[in-house]
Amino acid sequence: MAEDDDRPIRVRTLFLSDLHLGTRGCQAGMLLGFLRDYDADTIYLVGDIVDGWQLKSGWYWPQAHNDVVQKLLRKVRKGTHVVYLPGNHDEFLRNYVGTTFGGIEIADTAIHEAADGRRYLVIHGDQFDMVMRHQRWLAHLGDGAYTLALWLNTVLNRFRRRLGLSYWSLSAWAKLKVKNAVSFIGKFEEILAEEARRRGAQGVICGHIHHAADRAIDDLRYLNTGDWVESCTGIVEHYDGRIEVLHYPSVLRAREAQALTEAQEALPPGRRAVA
Fold first, then answer.
1. HSE on the CB side for 204, CA within 13 Å?
2. Residue 246 and residue 242: Cα distance in Å, rounded?
3. What is the pLDDT of residues 155-177, one digit of tens each?
4. Helix crossing, 28-37 with 63-77: angle to 10°?
5. d(Cα 52, Cα 55) in Å, to the nearest integer?
6. Which whole-number Å values give the CA distances from 120 to 204, 240, 242, 248, in the listed order?
């Protein structure tokens, strides 16, 4: 934390997507930690927050997932403006675009004006996924394979924790090793950037492909929130308009390292650990 107390870090805007609440792959505990650490004036939930696909095939809703929902609702009650932009896994909510539930606004897309005046198209992104649009059966088949990869990922990281090793995503590694996946990601980014340009925005903030990114595409800025299944990432806008992708596990590791350094410095010189 930036302070010596437990107060959250206050930022202007948070962008979170692909939480996939209702699945065993959701990193709900880490997400709760992030929501405790950061407060914002506005939170954009950029799709696939609740996984309707998985909940249809089998109900899974542990207390930690309910805690995430309650934490978001508490932020609404305290004055945070929350905008929910449904994705393909929670597309049932697209029937309610233009309405408000529990103080949460449901919208298809949004234009976010940052503190520096730059305008960003905020959209989940599945609208521009050709597989989702024309071959939904293939998307569901791929989702099943992805769920299996996440199960293997959970087993692997259980052993890594026992060995004292940090979290590592098998599915993310495999995805980026596949040439077609890399090609798909590049095309997806270009299409979303072009849509932002068409709408008169200077950038785009999206989700959907579980691949956090911050890069320039010609004169536009492409930002992807990542997810809370594999990477545990989100996007933060500070009050000066600075926008960054935060990898929360790295934030936690840096905090632990700082706490260890401070503890060492507080010891008498003779008792400090020697590197």
1. 29
2. 12
3. 666 776 777 766 656 556 555 55
4. 20
5. 5
6. 5, 16, 13, 23
